[in-house]
Amino acid sequence: MTSERQAAEQAFQTAAQEHSTATVLFHAAIADRLGLGPTDIKSLDFIQRSGKLTAGELGKLTGLSSASVTALIDRLERKGFVKRSRDDSDRRKVILTPTATARHSIDPAFADARQMLTDMLAPYTVDEIRFLADFLRRSATAVHDFLQSPPVDSDQDRKRSKAPTAKAQAKTTDL
């Protein structure tokens, strides 16, 4: 690998980190304006883009436990952003659909960001925009795949898992 390639890749990595941080902060600020947490607003985004999701599907997409998904749905429902209903074919499934309140609240909150992106894309050709969109889709897929994979077992994780818990230590001390 050439040093020019290494320098370009390093510059890209740095820019990607800066972009990621700015994006997280942006979404946290939008969520805060709507009285939501960052996980709530991104979960609502999944629900809005799909049109409807089951609670189980939302759990898979977010990596949240069943109990956490239930609490999240409760918060979104209290705010009037989602409607919860039972699946007609399987009453155990909870179907989540976005409400008009969600669309009327979320869409305006992101209007400035959409305009900013439109302005940023102005100097690019259609082919360049397609290239950027392809990169972003592939990047999102890679991140989702990473989140679905089991955690890497590091030496520190193994040491922590072998360390006795406070309860186990107390039992040993009592003997």
Automatic annotation (TrEMBL):
It comes from the Bacteria. InterPro entries: ArsR-like_HTH (IPR011991), AsnC-type_HTH_dom (IPR000485), HTH_MarR-typ (IPR000835), MarR/SlyA-like (IPR039422), WH-like_DNA-bd_sf (IPR036388), WH_DNA-bd_sf (IPR036390). Residues 163-175 have a biased composition (Low complexity). SUPFAM superfamilies: Winged helix' DNA-binding domain. SMART domains: HTH_MARR (SM00347). It holds the Pfam family MarR. Residues 146-175 are annotated as: Disordered. CDD domains: HTH_ARSR (cd00090). Residues 1-141 form the HTH marR-type domain. This is MarR family winged helix-turn-helix transcriptional regulator. It comes from Paracoccus pacificus.
